[in-house]
């Protein structure tokens, strides 16, 4: 048995999950002002010039692809710090992770007086 965290169709085919006790949505970390107005995977998929960063092996890759984001729009990173730097320097337009996690990261960066980031829920 596994806890009901990140239940995907593929995982549910292989494992027995308990009834979920809570859920958490994906969200995007973007530069302040959100220059490309990205507020969902679908909005990103509609902009061929938009690039999405994800961490290797996380469920956001599958979710993005299922929402129409093409593989050439996705940049895969090994470490969160690399995705944050990529957003800040404009190499990617959004970093997909959990909305809660991204909100925490954005607040920590703001508290350290670094370059500005903001969050957008999927």
Q: Outline of this structure?
A:
This protein is an alpha/beta fold and 122 residues long. It has helices at residues 9-14, 41-45, 59-66, 80-89, 99-111, and strands spanning 26-31, 52-55, 74-77, 94-98, 117-121.
What does the model show?
The protein has 122 residues and is of the alpha/beta class. It contains five helices and five strands, in the order H-E-H-E-H-E-H-E-H-E. The longest helix has 13 residues, at 99-111. The protein is globular and about 40 Å long.
Quickly list its features:
122 residues, alpha/beta, D-Maltodextrin-Binding Protein, domain 2, 5-stranded mixed beta sheet, 5 helices, 34% helix, 20% strand
Largest sheet: 5 strands, mixed
- Beta content: 15-25%
DSSP strand tally:
5
Computed Rg: 15 Å
Q: How many DSSP helices? A: 5
Instruction: Name the CATH homologous superfamily.
Output: Periplasmic binding protein-like II
- Straight-line N-to-C gap: 29 Å
